[in-house]
Design a protein that fits this description.
By secondary structure, the chain is mainly α. The protein is built from nine helices and three strands; from the N terminus they run βαββαααααααα. It has a three-stranded antiparallel β-sheet, with helices on one face. The protein starts with a strand and ends with a helix.
Length: about 170
């Protein structure tokens, strides 16, 4: 967390500063007596790794006000076929602008976020159900099972079946 001292600023100037900070990817935490406490939204990215470890239903997405709509759209639609173009249209940006914005603020692309959301959901289903890998792949938005296997392997360095077995052995 970082503190910024704003002295002798008019309310209009302070409000503009807050808006600029949020647009730049900061999360404004506290404002009091001219002191503004902010946190870089990147600092919330650890949530992604924690949710992979704990497999809870907590959101994998960082808390970045400017990208809230993007992540909400992905969350609501990841289980079906969605593209960068559809996400961009849904939030009112061009594909190129959205790509640059998301990469700048998170270090990942929109497509990376869609893939990660699908893989995290697939891993949850692999642990919590006895559904086949193929059924799970279809459920989380993959039409091509081989593509799912490749992306799962890239993410977990293991096939879905082997990962399921190794995770279940750890729990037992």
């Amino acid at each position: 967390m970082t503190n910024i001292l704003v002295s002798d600023a008019e309310t209009k100037t302070k409000n503009l500063l807050m808006k600029c900070l949020e647009t730049a990817g900061f999360e404004v935490m506290i404002t009091e007596n001219g002191l503004v406490s902010v946190q870089l939204a990147h600092e919330n990215l650890s949530t992604t790794t924690e949710s992979k470890k704990s497999n809870t239903q907590r959101s994998i997405f960082p808390s970045i006000p400017r990208l809230r709509e993007v992540f909400e759209f992905i969350e609501l639609n990841y289980h079906q076929s969605i593209s960068l173009k559809e996400v961009a249209q849904a939030v009112g940006y061009s594909s190129a602008y959205l790509t640059d914005l998301v990469r700048h603020l998170t270090g990942k692309t929109v497509t990376n976020w869609i893939i990660e959301r699908r893989i995290v959901q697939a891993s949850t289903l692999l642990l919590e159900t006895n559904e086949s890998v193929e059924q799970i792949a279809l459920k989380v938005g993959y039409q091509n099972i081989n593509h799912f296997y490749c992306q799962f392997r890239d993410y977990y360095k293991n096939t879905p079946r082997a990962w399921r077995e190794s995770q279940r052995c750890k729990v037992a």
